[in-house]
Amino acid sequence: MTNIGVSITGSGSAIPKVSLDNQQLSQIVDTSDEWIGSRTGIRKRQLANPTESLCSLATQASLAALGQTNITAKDIDLIILATSTPDDLFGTASQIQSELDAKQAVAFDMTAACSGFVFGLVTAAQFIRNGVYQNILLIGADILSRWVDWEDRTTCVLFGDGAGAVILQASGRDRLLGFELRSDGSQNNCLNLSYQPQEKKIIDGVAVSKGTYQPITMNGKEVYRFAVQKVPEVIEKALFRANISVEEIDWLLLHQANQRILDAVASRLNIPSEKVISNLRNYGNTSAASIPLALDEAVRQGQVSSGDIIAASGFGAGLTWGAVIFEWSSI
Ligand code: COA
Fold first, then answer.
1. Ligand 1, pocket-test mutation among 84, 85, 154, 229, most atoms within 8 A of CB
2. Domain 178-186+217-327 - what CATH class?
3. For 30, which DSSP code?
C-alpha cells in the first residue's frame, strides 16, 4: 500500500554573509541599539548583497536539507518556494529546480508573506496524503532588504534576509498531526508591499499602467495586537485538531518577528520560555525563511531531536496566520 503519511526528514538553511548590527543601523536612521533591542530583541541582521540572489540562497538551503536525508535532488517530485521576494515575478522555483538538477520535480512559487512556510508545509502535505508525490522540497526564502525603505526607522530595523528548507517524505506514519490556516483581507492595509502605477499610457484607447512595487509599509501596533491575539488561538485550534495538549509540545516555533510577540504568545499558552525557539536576535524578521531557519539551527545544535513535537506558527501580511503541529523525524 502507498505510504501516505507525512514525515519531515531534513532541514537546511542559508544566510547572506554581510551583517548589519543595530549600532551600524543607528548611523543610517535615528535609532539606537537600546531601542531596537528592548522593543524587538533584534541585535543584527544579515543582508544579501546585490550579487546574491534568492535563487542562490534557496539552493544552498535546499542542498543542506537534502544532505540530512537519504534522497538526492533526482528523487524530488515537487518544489514549493514560499516567498514574497522572488528574483522573477513569474517565479523563482523553476530556477532552483534547474540549479539543483532536480529533473523530475515540478516547481512553483507561493506567497503568503510571513505565513508562507506554514501555508507551504500544509500545501505540500496534501500532495503526499493523496498519494501523488513521495518527496517534496519546501523552501521559505526572502530578501526583504530589497523592499525596505532604509529611511523609515519604524520598519527598516525589523527585517533581514535568509532561506530555510525542509524535505517532506511519504511514510507509513503521519507525523503532521494537525493544522489550522486563516486569512483576513479586511486588515490587508496593516502591512503592504504594493504595486503602484507610476505612468499611465493610453494604447489605442486602452489605459494601462507601468509602475513598480513600493517599499514596505506597516502599522506596527496593529500587527503586534493581531499577532498576540490570533497566534495563540490558531495554535490552540491546531492542537485541538491534533488531539494534543499544550503540555505535550516540546518546542514552540513561531515566526521570528519580535521577541515580545514570542514571549506574549508563550505566556498566553502557558509554555515555559525553555521551550520557545528563538534566533531573531541574530537575523531579525526574515519573513518566509524565519521558521525553517530557526528550525534548522535548533536541529543542528541538537536542541530538536527525532520524536519531538513542534508547534509552529506563522503570521503576517495578508493578513494571514496559521499553525501546524508536527513531529520531527530526522533519519
Ligand atoms: N528607533 C527609535 N525610535 C523609534 C523607532 C526606532 N527604530 N521606531 C519607532 N520609534 C519611535 C516612534 O516614532 C515613537 O515615537 P513617538 O512616541 O515620539 O511618536 C516611539 O518610538 C514608539 O513607537 P511605537 O510604534 O509606539 O513603538 P512600539 O512599542 O509599538 O514598537 C514595533 C514598534 C514596530 C517594534 C512594534 O509595534 C512591533 O513589533 N509590531 C509588530 C511588527 C511586526 O512584527 N511586523 C511584522 C509581522 S510579520
1. 154
2. alpha beta
3. S
pTM: 0.96
Provide the pairing of β-strand 18-21 with 44-47. antiparallel
* Residue located nearest, by CA, to atom 26 of ligand 1: 221
Q: What is the residue extent of each domain of the chain?
A: 5-175, 178-186+217-327
Reported CATH class of domain 5-175 = alpha beta
- CA 208 from chain centre, in angstroms, equals 34
Q: pLDDT digit string (tens) for 181-216?
A: 999 999 999 999 999 999 888 988 899 999 999 999
Q: Which atom of ligand 1 is nearest to the CA of 156?
A: 7
Mean pLDDT estimate for the chain: 97
How many Cα atoms within 13 Å fall on the side-chain side of residue 255? 35
Which residues, 6 or more positions from 239, have their beta carbon under 8 angstroms from its beta carbon? 178, 245, 246, 249, 311, 323, 325
Residues in the chain, total: 331
Active site residues: 114, 255, 285
The answer to whether the 5-175 and 178-186+217-327 domains have the same CATH topology is: yes
DSSP letter, residue 89: T
Cell of 232: 495563540
